[in-house]
Amino acid sequence: MKFVHFSDALKVILNVWEPRVLVLCSLFLQIILIFSADFRKRNVSWVLRIVLWSAYLLADVVATFALGFLAHSQDDSPHSDAAANDTLLAFWSPFLLLHLGGPDTITAFSLEDNELWRRHLLGLVFQVFTAAYVFVKALSHNTRLLVPTLFMFATGLLKYGERTWALFSASMLRLRSSMLTPPDSGPNYAKFMEAYESSKSAGLQCEISVEKERHPKSVTPEDAGEDDGGLPAKDMVRWAYQFFLTFRLLIVDLILTFEHRIDSQSFFLKGRTATDAFKVVEIELSFIYDVLHTKAAVVHNLAGRLIRFATIIFSTVALLFFIFTNKRGYNHDDVIVTYILSIGAVVLEIISIILMFLSPWTFNWLLDHKYTHLASWVFRLSRPFRKHSWSNQMAGYNLITFCREDEQYYLKKIGKIINWFGVKDSWDQLWFTKHIEVPEYLKEVIFRELKVKITSINDTESYKRFSACRGEWALRQKGYYLDLGWSVDAEFDESILLWHIATDLCYYDTDYQSQKELDIIINISRAVSDYMLYLLLELPFMLTAGIGQIRYGDTCADVKHFFGRWGPEMEVEDACESLLRVNTDYDPILVKGDRSKSVLFDACKLAQKLNKIEDQKTRWDVISHVWVEMLCFAATKCRGNSHAKQLSLGGELLTHVWLLMAHMGIGEQYRIEAGHARAKLFVDS
């Protein structure tokens, strides 16, 4: 009997408090999303990712469940005690529609969410119908809150519809169709040839002269001037926006023309520093992120601004009406909850307008419409809030470090336990992946190498040849292709593993002597080496197809077997020195066979050849240039959609290199190398 009474009491408590808890929880989730969603493009923390993912999913679930609960809890009797308070609870339903519309800072957690816009459209119809049912049924008994409810209903409908439209606009099919140029059939070939044929048939002397409309202009070393000392921040935002309007084509795998290449090169090659170049690319990618994951595409136009001002006015009017409404007969706690919801709605709308006004989108819109002074004022106000538009970090995963530490007793025990759950690989990647800030000198090396390549191009075919280089150009330039070319002519994933291990073996060479300039080159080499292995293991979809993970697994087993001969007490330096002493005169595959895909001793062979370069600076100069070229090759071979996926996860250095290379004219996106030909028919009678 006691249990029955407790159950009844619990049911009463839940019926009373559940709607209050649900609507307040829905508001709380909106606050989390609007203040923290923007951080994910600048942060690689998996904790933040889980929090945002949970809040994103729960926000819709809680609001939907709360709407259903309100619809179910309406009392059918107009004379009951509960019916008087139902009108107040019905006033909550449009707030839940407002919450389902979500904040401006996040519409899609991942790109796949944009493709589900039809589901959101169906949800919009159903939830609007549910909310309408709730307040129509309640207000049929009492019309005291009719006016504020209608205003909030209009606000919620606008916000929910705006979110659905943003998802639709960011879907890949819609983006692609919106960027397609009108079909171009070119000059009328059939008509031209008919005139030519009729002239010949009449016995007239005919000659066709073809004049190109415009020829691609080669960039010369003189064009790439000295650094001009830095670009003002305002100009960076302006240039980034202008480039975004063109180079967003790459996200949906559309093509560019030689005119785009010339215009872009004229900016990036004339007096730009590496810092300026990468910063412009960073801001440009931030615009792309906004289009794909926020309401920016629908907010920053005339209709979007009108909606934003309408929602703030409607929600404010609803709050004022509620303040002056007679609240006799309403539950005191429910009145407090209603005040929290109303004030929260107004405050969130004010924050949305502030964020909209202080965004680079508004800054560029004002400049486009010649409001220069107002644009400068907006820029000054927004400047203190601007930080990096991405994490500015690069991950790293080191094979030798993993093989040594994974054999340690406590990690081995942990590995055996978690292997029971089938998550050993995920644990290894999480535990052994390290993040470092992208060194400025790495950006300088990448930018300098790209400028050297561009200024040595003589024709359009050279662009394609350079985009296909993955280390051979660097080796040829340094004069070591005959000795080391085999290591970069292998499959790409094999080359990454070969050079990754060889880089570590050369680093642990006991003859190494520290020097400032040499340290910089070594740090570049090791950072890119670890980063490329991280891409191979954790983001293989960003590299060319291969059997990289199989090769990695076999190579790890080989390394552990070799290190196991001396036991866990052996230092890494000693183990690497032992590897360097292995005789590799005989090809390893002839001894080990082709079943195992381990490249350990091929990497030893490569390291031994590299160590024959006596001058340490020259040796590491070769290694660093090969790694930078591999990085650039990987960037061009990754599809735009795959690059776009990483923007919401803190961004990738590979994506910034990819877009920078596109601006420099290197890549497979350029498919139009000349304009329409002007063919003229000369007839001599």
TrEMBL record:
The chain crosses the membrane at residues 20-39, 46-69, 89-109, 121-139, 306-324, 336-358. It holds the Pfam family DUF594. The keyword Transmembrane helix applies. Keywords: Membrane, Transmembrane, Transmembrane helix. InterPro entries: DUF4220, DUF594. Residues 53-401 form the DUF4220 domain. PANTHER family: OS01G0798800 PROTEIN-RELATED (PTHR31325). This is DUF4220 domain-containing protein.
